[in-house]
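Summary for the lay section of the report: proteins are chains of building blocks that fold into shapes. Here we show the chain for tRNA(Ile)-lysidine/2-thiocytidine synthase N-terminal domain-containing protein and then a coded description of the shape we predicted for it.
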Amino acid sequence: MAPKLCTRCQTAKAALKRPKTQEQVCRECFFTAFEEEVHQTIVQNKLFKHGERVAIAASGGKDSTVLAHIMTTLNARHGYGLDLFLLSIDEGITGYRDDSLETVKRNEQQYGIPLTVVSYKQLYGWTMDEIVAQIGTKNNCTFCGVFRRQALDRGAVLCAANKIATGHNADDVAETVLLNILRGDVPRLGRCASIITGEDSPLPRVKPFKYAYEKEIVLYAYYKKLDYFSTECIYAPFAARGFAREFIKDLEAARPLAIIDVIRSAEDFTFGPLAPPAPAGTAQQPSQPSQP
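The coded shape description reads as follows.
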């Protein structure tokens, strides 16, 4: 049986099936398609302006490593004119962040963009390990998320950045939508899928990978042989997001476009007019059907 050819170029042997589109493609066509889709996301949503200084939130993981690679590549290819730098937050998690920072330092050399590291100890006077020792593991991810966002903001401001680019991917956005539904957090449903956030922060945050599937980011990193840190945070198993992540993966297995569908649903979410409150001590009567 002859090997399957790439559905795009029709010449090279297909090397993989894209999780997002189910296309059988060769490596080069996959790289081209993935990079072009990210470029279109950036252009169509006007994420950057020429001359802006952009902090790439770098953890050393697959998402931020691929983001640094892609941003460097597209900035040169399409003439974005961006001043890029890596911004890492050291939460002070022994056996995790200290190791991942070594990866980020290598990325600094590999991509030729400078690195700034800001630590919880430097900003707040304590590490995440010290916080967990006091509060336990139940809500530690909630605390860490708040502190990390503030640390990114403060670090970016110190470095005179105009924007922060994060590696949040389509799976992450879909998980956030699901979590807000489970929590009954209706006000956040209308904005949790926004590609530009940070209204309550000193700097805008942008998500160039908003429509990029996690599996495709992994494939891109694998076939490009990128240097990234793959160990999960030691406190992650205690996070509520893990349950949402498993549910989203089940949806994807049943229907690959389910991730995008969840995101689109949140994008299309709008508030209807609020009903006026009923007078105190009275019960609001149900509306009567209109007469034909």
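Put simply, here is one thing we learned. The chain has one domain: 45-267.
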